[in-house]
Amino acid sequence: MTDPLGQSQVLPYLVGLSKLGYDITLLSCEKPERFKKNKSVIEAIIQSNNINWQPISFTSSPPVLAKYYDLYQLRKTAERLHLKKKFQLVHCRSYVSAAVGVHLKNKFGVKFLFDMRGFWVDERVDGGAWNLNNPFYNQAYKNYKKKEATYIAQADAIISLTEAGKQEMQTWQSYQQASIQVIPCSADFNLFSLTSLDKKLASRRLLEIKEDALVISYLGSVGAWYLLDEMLAAFAVIKEKYTNAVFLFITTEPAEMILNTAKNFKLQASDFVIRAASRQEVPVFTAASDINLFFIKQSYSKIASSPTKLGEILAMGIPVICNSKVGDVESIVREMDAGIIISDFTAENYAKIVAGIPELLAKNPAIIRDRAREYYTLDNAIKKYAQVYRSLLPELNYVSSTSAE
């Protein structure tokens, strides 16, 4: 919960569900350094929303084996809490915690909700974390694919981030007709408010960007899934036509990593503004943007991915340039008429991007935001989660549940 993702994609849902009357115990693994830094922030949120937080320490080494130790801690703690509280539902986010859900279901009859958050096992391979030529990782992959099949088969209900992921799952042999609800990574429309000319100019003054610059922005981490070389290649082509273009990176990555790579594309340090931001600062800095650009590695596992940044950018009414073959991104952007989608990373497609920029700049931010609201709003996500809870426990007006993270 002390990670940025926990604060944006877990706690807001649980706060909303708690307000609907659910008694929630939150069991999570926390990185020691972030726990020390952000513990008080999380405690303030959970205490004011009647959530019982039970944090345990996250271990990162040795690789793979550390996951088994975390699983042992989660399982032991969850069983102790269940004996005290008698949970009716265990809501498990991703794969490691799902093993706890299966255990509680088989031993105590607790309903098991598998909130899978994408194809985690295949992401480890596609993202380069697990090299299948290494016998150790090869065996880990096989073991976790078996576990994945168990989680799918035993789940009383499943959450998928994308329609594409849902459709793929339904072809798996392990799938046993459990209800699958699609809930994408939502955006806080209060935090990510509608952009305006005044906000844009104020942000540019803050970031020391010229008022008349064409600002292309990127939000989030760089590397592994996010294709820095391809994004820089596209920006270099944009820069040829729009000499006043500036690439704004809102990221915690070292500036040198970006700038050193940029030299390969004959880009200068003066073409970039690179800033780290707190969650509250992200929309303030992003408001400087004319267009947001992100390219994601295309792979099998990414069909189940819902980029958090897309909902946040569209909530602000900023048009996007991105690529297809990633979750439901292409259909979302096309249906909302919110940007340019390219299928692959070629000179021809980069030229297509440049040609489409005038149309992007002419789009009405309020229309983009309104079209994105129903799909990405946090309130809608909470309602969908509540529907799943009620379907699993229809006999109860009041539900005591645990969420294992």
Automatic annotation (TrEMBL):
<dbReference type="InterPro" id="IPR001296">
    <property type="entry name" value="Glyco_trans_1"/>
</dbReference>
<dbReference type="Pfam" id="PF13439">
    <property type="entry name" value="Glyco_transf_4"/>
</dbReference>
<feature type="domain" description="Glycosyl transferase family 1">
    <location>
        <begin position="204"/>
        <end position="355"/>
    </location>
</feature>
<dbReference type="Pfam" id="PF00534">
    <property type="entry name" value="Glycos_transf_1"/>
</dbReference>
<protein>
    <submittedName>
        <fullName>Glycosyltransferase</fullName>
    </submittedName>
</protein>
<feature type="domain" description="Glycosyltransferase subfamily 4-like N-terminal">
    <location>
        <begin position="16"/>
        <end position="188"/>
    </location>
</feature>
<dbReference type="GO" id="GO:0016757">
    <property type="term" value="F:glycosyltransferase activity"/>
</dbReference>
<keyword id="KW-0808">Transferase</keyword>
<dbReference type="InterPro" id="IPR028098">
    <property type="entry name" value="Glyco_trans_4-like_N"/>
</dbReference>
